[in-house]
Write a structure and sequence with these properties.
It holds the Pfam family TctC. Keywords: Signal. This protein is of the alpha/beta class. About 45% of the residues lie in helices and about 20% in strands. The chain is built from 11 helices and 11 strands. The relative contact order is 0.17.
């Protein structure tokens, strides 16, 4: 009896191996893919995620379901993605909060809000600088005018509105102030939209956002742009200098958007994710939708995306250390 069982098991081994081989050769994805967007609808991540999801559906011929899971500055959605089953079927669209939240947690001695090591970078999608804007009737014609005025006044006389402590508005303003050796008054709001409203209403002097967000206000004559935080000028505002051009060499900051998966996802699946995203970013409809908003694709994958993240993390961590604890 034992010999017969052993014999049957031996005969079954080739069949099991063949079945495993068939499963391994199945195309990816062969069922719907979920992409977590860790912020409410309407923000920068959402503006990239929606056309990307539609393009991936066309490339993969599979449903791509976007889940907006906002809260705690993005950490709730990022934590959910980090803990998802590592099979490649749960992606994450993240931005600079991927760098800033762990740095803020460390500053306050808190337990990490999410496990950054559990996430693998797949593709950088966009990397937009922040544009510092004032109301059109503000007295400053350039960023250097504002810096000179800030140094003449009492420290903190000039206020700017941000989307919250350690946010993508707070950090670059403090980077500029530190590099220029002057002080500004930080006024946090519940989001970027309310901060823009506060500038237009005269409650604060300045705020910042991406070129695609502020360009309509600049074109309409409601706002004036003073400087931007990228390494090079942007097509949407070609006459606007970078902080680096003006001598603020340590100031480089981006509101970037990238795609992540779980760190333990098989290398072959990660490769297929990169290939799918690369094909999606070439889709005419996705490019058209991003161009409509003024955003530019900045596709970087593999070592190039990791190098970008490493540099971003260093800049953000240094800025948060300089700012210190903000309750």
């Amino acid at each position: 009896m034992t010999r017969n069982i052993t014999r049957r098991a031996a005969l079954a081994l080739p069949m099991l191996a063949a079945a495993r081989g068939t499963l391994a050769q199945q195309p990816f994805p062969n069922r719907p893919v979920t992409v977590i967007v860790p912020f409410p609808p309407g923000g920068a991540t959402d503006l990239v995620a929606r056309p990307l999801g539609a393009a991936l559906q066309r490339v993969w011929n599979q449903s791509v379901v976007l889940q907006n899971r906002g809260g705690a500055g993005g950490s709730i959605g990022m934590a959910a993605a980090a803990m998802a089953r590592p099979d490649g079927y749960t992606g994450l669209i993240a931005h600079v909060a991927y760098s800033s939240i762990p740095a803020a947690d460390a500053l306050f001695g808190r337990a990490p809000s999410f496990d950054r090591a559990a996430l693998a970078p797949v593709s950088l999608l966009t990397a937009d600088p922040q544009v510092m804007v004032v109301k059109a009737d503000a007295p400053w014609r350039s960023w250097l005018d504002l810096v000179a005025d800030a140094k003449r006044r009492r420290p903190g006389d000039i206020a700017y509105g941000s989307s919250g402590p350690y946010s993508a508005v707070h950090l670059p303003f403090e980077m500029l102030a530190q590099a220029g050796e002057f002080q500004l008054n930080h006024v946090p709001y519940s989001g970027g939209g309310p901060a823009i409203t506060a500038v237009l209403g005269g409650q604060v002097a300045m705020t910042a956002s991406t070129p695609s967000v502020v360009a309509p206000y600049i074109r309409s004559g409601e706002m004036r742009a003073l400087v931007q935080t990228g390494a090079r000028r942007v097509a949407l505002l070609p006459d606007l200098p970078t902080a680096i051009e003006l001598g603020f060499r340590g100031v480089e900051f981006y509101l970037w958007v990238g795609f992540f998966t779980q760190a333990t996802v098989e290398a072959d699946i990660q490769r297929r994710l990169r290939e799918g995203i690369s094909a999606a970013t070439q889709e005419p409809e996705m490019r058209r939708q991003l161009e409509t908003t003024g955003m530019e694709i900045d596709l970087r994958q593999g070592d190039a995306f990791q190098a970008f993240l490493d540099a971003d993390r260093q800049r953000v961590e240094a800025a948060i250390q300089r700012i210190g604890k903000v309750e």
